[in-house]
């Protein structure tokens, strides 16, 4: 049996604090816990136990060659659509570098190590709410659309174990398994 994992980016503390302040002013919104905020690069439903070390080595090799992108929160969206939304998220805009390159590298490393990632198209986003049943989200999206953050440099990527039902209110509990440093951008 394998372990549920994902390769992701956790926003830095000052960005989480900014989003948390925005959230505190809107207590009627179905926010998920701040500890669960992340940008998923690759979701791995079942990493074989015997492949953990190989996955970590391949991620270190591939991600260790990627340049740190500069990103910001700008805009909002939802899955699957605004009329029947079940997940609300903040859009992550790339100012320089490429989150898509990080996602491609992470997915390639996972495939090579025998840990097949999901086949979903990569959309850079930070999930902030999960709804118990699909709803029309137009009002909430308008509110989320007003949130922007200062830019931040993504310096590291994490391999995170996900333990369903072990977190607050029956949510998943996340545990960092490994951290991978990215290449600093070139300075002129």
UniProtKB/TrEMBL annotation:
GO terms for molecular function: 2',3'-cyclic-nucleotide 3'-phosphodiesterase activity; ligase activity; RNA 2',3'-cyclic 3'-phosphodiesterase activity. The active site is at residues 38, 125. Belongs to the 2H phosphoesterase superfamily. ThpR family. This is RNA 2',3'-cyclic phosphodiesterase. It is an enzyme of class 3 (hydrolase). Hydrolyzes RNA 2',3'-cyclic phosphodiester to an RNA 2'-phosphomonoester. InterPro entries: Cyclic_Pdiesterase, RNA_CPDase. Pfam families: 2_5_RNA_ligase2. A motif (HXTX 2) lies at residues 125-128. A motif (HXTX 1) lies at residues 38-41. The keyword Nucleotidyltransferase does not apply. The lineage of its organism: Bacteria, Bacillati, Actinomycetota, Actinomycetes, Actinomycetales. It catalyses: a 3'-end 2',3'-cyclophospho-ribonucleotide-RNA + H2O = a 3'-end 2'-phospho-ribonucleotide-RNA + H(+). Keywords: Hydrolase, Ligase. PANTHER family: RNA 2',3'-CYCLIC PHOSPHODIESTERASE. Its EC number is 3.1.4.58.
